[in-house]
Amino acid sequence: MASSHTLQARQLSLGYGEREIVSRLDLALPPGRITVVVGPNASGKSTLLRALARLLPPLAGSVLLDGRDIHRTPTKEVAATLGVLPQSPVAPDAIVVADLVGRGRYPHQGWFRRWTRADDEAVAAAMLATDVLDLADRSVDELSGGQRQRVWIAMALAQETDVLLLDEPTTYLDISHQLDVLDLLTDLNRARDVTLALVLHDLNLACRYADHLIAMKAGRIVAEGPPGDIVTASLVHEVFGLRSAVIPDPASGTPMVVPLGRHHVTPSG
């Protein structure tokens, strides 16, 4: 059964100070699916994700979680449904890995609810899935960028929410761990029908893993839909200013973008 939770933006305008970055945008994440947002730098994709996560208040319009304004919903209630991994999270000084991952269980705690075996199991499963179990007693400050990123992803998974937003979750990871993380998120989506929204830089990985792709430029949505329906050479040129050939990915059959330099000719046929 697919997730029944909905996350929408209505006539959403976003910015910092007097600078507007996103203007009057409408969006609905398909429940129980994987949505990936792509676009060039400064296109507004991370700003949009921050707003959907309630980390950035809108200049105008609204973000609705299950039909309710997310800024008028109690923080703990939002956190029990919606998890977020921002682009550059900051860990408390000297915290060890197991404790940081355990903080993902905060929304499940209450005035009279203590740490339970279920919390232990959720934390252990998240750490096992992200391959950080052997780092449990290490200080987060001592980890490499890639290790730290996997620990943050483990914390987001330990939260066990039905909607999960991740801004550049593959940052600092080598290609092997990038695929591990994206496979893990796909497994999570398929096993638990978690609604996922990711910002990714790699267009080919976005096409391979997205059920629903959103292409942004200059604060607006240029196209959205299944990658196979919308990703064409003309769209890539419009959004990224890049000449390319779009061919089937030999591993997945999804669109694969092959960049073309000035000295390359688009294959015929």
TrEMBL record:
<dbReference type="InterPro" id="IPR003593">
    <property type="entry name" value="AAA+_ATPase"/>
</dbReference>
<keyword id="KW-0067">ATP-binding</keyword>
<keyword id="KW-0472">Membrane</keyword>
<dbReference type="InterPro" id="IPR051535">
    <property type="entry name" value="Siderophore_ABC-ATPase"/>
</dbReference>
<dbReference type="InterPro" id="IPR003439">
    <property type="entry name" value="ABC_transporter-like_ATP-bd"/>
</dbReference>
<dbReference type="Pfam" id="PF00005">
    <property type="entry name" value="ABC_tran"/>
</dbReference>
<protein>
    <submittedName>
        <fullName>ABC transporter ATP-binding protein</fullName>
    </submittedName>
</protein>
<keyword id="KW-0408">Iron</keyword>
<keyword id="KW-0410">Iron transport</keyword>
<feature type="domain" description="ABC transporter">
    <location>
        <begin position="7"/>
        <end position="243"/>
    </location>
</feature>
<keyword id="KW-0813">Transport</keyword>
<keyword id="KW-1003">Cell membrane</keyword>
<dbReference type="InterPro" id="IPR027417">
    <property type="entry name" value="P-loop_NTPase"/>
</dbReference>
<dbReference type="GO" id="GO:0005524">
    <property type="term" value="F:ATP binding"/>
</dbReference>
<keyword id="KW-0547">Nucleotide-binding</keyword>
<keyword id="KW-0406">Ion transport</keyword>
<dbReference type="InterPro" id="IPR017871">
    <property type="entry name" value="ABC_transporter-like_CS"/>
</dbReference>
